Amino acid sequence: MTHTLFPAPAPVLADIHGSDAKFPVNRIFCVGRNYLAHAAEMGVSVDKSTQEPFYFTKHPSSLVPSGATIPYPPQTTNYHYEMEFVVAIGKAGFEVTEEQADELVFGYAAGLDMTRRDLQLKAREAGRPWDLGKDFEQSAILTPIVPVAQTSIIDQGKIELAVNGEVQQSSDLELLIWNVREIIAHLSKFYHLQPGDLIYTGTPEGVGPVIAGDRITGFIDRVGEIELTIAP
Fold first, then answer.
1. Within a domain: 16
2. Quick check: is 9 in a domain?
3. Residue numbers of the domain that contains 81
4. Which end of the chain, N or C, is more open, meaning fewer C-beta atoms within 10 Å of its C-beta?
5. Distance in angstroms (rounded) separating the CA atoms of residues 56 and 111
6. Does residue 226 sit within a domain?
7. Neighbours of 45 (CB within 10 A)
8. pTM as predicted
9. Is residue 169 a contact partner of residue 38, using CB atoms and an 8 Å limit?
10. ∠ CA 82-26-7 to the nearest 5 degrees?
11. CATH number of the domain that residue 29 is part of
12. Residue 2: which pLDDT band, with cuts at 50, 70 and 90?
């Protein structure tokens, strides 16, 4: 028997809609600047004909279920929401084609990529990684995953977020610069995708700050509703 110095972390488990089974989370990949209007509001342009998607990651331990109340994070004064369509991978794949990509999809969820925007922009200006702005405790919010068998393949549908009842983000999944098939095919060139991987596919325009006491709500057609409350 192997003895550890301290208890090993428990596996991170996401809920599955309509099931008592759990989805063990392996990795969390996030696509950056995947809506033209959001890229523009961040002060950059994206040309799909000359550029490729890029990614950052969040540790699985950052995952929080929808409906939670979480504290305002440390070392930031500009804490932003980003509403995202999330793809859950259920089958291993490496160097898959776009035509094969659907075979890897277990299901879909709605997610929030919570961001310490001031730290992200400071890192960006210095040409440094975004980890302090993106990969921190309780920064990835997730609804129960809806299996493909319950909803079929999704490549369009409304995505919307409100803060305290006022709509701040409203778009459609068909406006993704790189769609889900393209993302899976591209990402699988660099990683052996595994069951349990989550891909946050990017956020539309309208991102902005929240403060203690704010309540975030949102939805994605055929996927689900998300909710998060910010505590002191």
1. no
2. no
3. 24-43+53-231
4. N
5. 15
6. yes
7. 10
8. 0.97
9. no
10. 110
11. 3.90.850.10
12. confident
